[in-house]
Amino acid sequence: MQNIQYKALVIDQIDGEFIQSIKTLETNDLPIGEVLIRVYYSSINYKDALSAIGNKGVTKNYPHTPGIDAVGIVEHSENDQFKKGDEVIVTGYDLGMNTSGGLGQYIRVPSEWVIMLPKNLSMKEAMIIGTAGFTAGISTLRLTELVKPNAGKIIVTGATGGVGSVAISLLSKLGYQTVAVSGKESESLFLKELGVSEIISRVEFQNVDKRPMLSAQFAGGIDTVGGPILENIIKSLQPLGIVTTCGSVSSTQLNMTVFPFILRGITLIGISAQNYPTSLRPNLWNKLANEWKPDNLMQIYTEITLNEVKNTIDLILQGKLKGRTIVNMK
What we know:
Helix content is 26%, strand content 28%. The chain is an alpha/beta fold. It has two domains: 5-117 and 300-328, Medium-chain alcohol dehydrogenases, catalytic domain (Quinone Oxidoreductase, Chain A, domain 1), CATH 3.90.180.10; 132-270, Rossmann fold (3-Layer(aba) Sandwich). Helix 1 packs across helix 9 (309-317), helix 2 (123-146) packs across helix 3 (162-173) and helix 2 (123-146) packs across helix 8. The mean pLDDT is 95.
């Protein structure tokens, strides 16, 4: 197979510092895998930012190319399931963590990580969804199993972020009334355009309330931050309410009693897009490409080039990004 040179964002560890630069690499140096893919788009996620600053809980060895999302065209496949020219998606698993990721123009991965790009979904749209949108999709799927649109309001935290913004779009399309928790007062118009009916200040909602239970206000919730905010959602759920949780930027701890669980019968569901079963992925991607496809998908993203990734990573670490940011790798 031909050795191909390509551009990639590379994080080097030099004298204890983690340095980002664009380098020319070769496909012969990519990790072992059955499928070589020419990446057309990637996206920026919080995990990519952590990898770029040397978080060893995400990436253990450097130099490294981040990028937990990739969509592109198969260049070579040793698995008959895929052929040269197929349009495919890779999200989750170990991509961009300890395996060279989508912020390089080529990736090589195990065939079980790869799924065909669904019909009715462009490569650009696939990356606007990306891992964040796929996480929102899993969260929405689990919530809709137990809570119907007429049950009451659904609270969504981290509402202007990648997961939160797509979750609100999905829930609004499915007929749910959504309440957004956000620390960005300047983005109220953006949230209203996504479909929220009410916005709650993050500062107000994250105040620690030591009471074991609070007034029952919400039929369900999608939480992306954890900590006191998740505690207050759990305490505020109606009987038989459900909240999904997929993030811990606020805290990994829950300091509360079990009373909401045993007195109101609420359900807490953990969400992991990285480890979502391979067999279930095509069905959810097909939903996101068809009946669940957000109507405002093309209004919730920013497109950048590989050269602009460094500044974007700085912004995501400062909590200043909204919606989704995709990277044109062509």
